[in-house]
UniProtKB/TrEMBL annotation:
<dbReference type="GO" id="GO:0045892">
    <property type="term" value="P:negative regulation of DNA-templated transcription"/>
</dbReference>
<keyword id="KW-0804">Transcription</keyword>
<dbReference type="InterPro" id="IPR005650">
    <property type="entry name" value="BlaI_family"/>
</dbReference>
<dbReference type="Pfam" id="PF03965">
    <property type="entry name" value="Penicillinase_R"/>
</dbReference>
<dbReference type="InterPro" id="IPR036388">
    <property type="entry name" value="WH-like_DNA-bd_sf"/>
</dbReference>
<dbReference type="GO" id="GO:0003677">
    <property type="term" value="F:DNA binding"/>
</dbReference>
<protein>
    <recommendedName>
        <fullName>BlaI/MecI/CopY family transcriptional regulator</fullName>
    </recommendedName>
</protein>
<dbReference type="InterPro" id="IPR036390">
    <property type="entry name" value="WH_DNA-bd_sf"/>
</dbReference>
<keyword id="KW-0805">Transcription regulation</keyword>
<keyword id="KW-0238">DNA-binding</keyword>
<comment type="similarity">
    <text>Belongs to the BlaI transcriptional regulatory family.</text>
</comment>
Length: 148
């Protein structure tokens, strides 16, 4: 019997280009809560997450619980009962989540104008981060070598 593949997050198709970071693909509060959960190395209660988030963002505990449960439904968080309290934990490490979302975004964009995507991508990298352009060149070379 083959091992079960971990469940993939259920992400919508909407991307908010004007938002920052995770809020591009999640709601603002979802992004704040997921970021807070990632800061712990163990499952965490909604109250603990609330206490962390309320420092910078006024929000009710019940709202935090509701949004954490929505992240569970989306398979971005997991939830289990420990010591009589519900605890939440990220289903994926931050890097794995970013890889998953980035791939989904590229797969969605490539259908829009595949003949222009590579050129636009290179132009934007050259403008914003030339070091990443060098990294892209190395990744392309590695992919070509693997293909033979």
């Amino acid at each position: 019997m083959s091992p079960r593949k971990p469940a993939q997050p259920k992400m919508g198709d909407a991307v908010r280009l004007s938002a920052d970071g995770l809020a591009k693909v999640l709601g603002d509060l979802e992004a704040r809560l997921l970021t807070a959960v990632w800061q712990f190395d163990e499952p965490v209660t909604a109250r603990t997450v609330h206490e962390m988030v309320i420092v910078e963002h006024e929000v009710a505990l019940l709202t935090v619980v509701t949004v954490l449960n929505k992240l569970v439904e989306k398979q971005i968080l997991t939830r289990r009962k420990l010591h009589g309290l519900l605890h939440y934990e990220a289903a994926m490490a931050p890097g794995d989540f970013h890889d998953f979302v980035s791939r989904r975004m590229v797969e969605g964009v490539i259908d829009f104008a595949p003949e222009r995507l590579a050129a636009c991508f290179v132009d934007v990298l050259a403008e914003r981060d030339p070091a990443q352009l060098d990294r892209l060149a190395r990744l392309v070379d590695e992919a070509r070598r693997r293909r033979g």
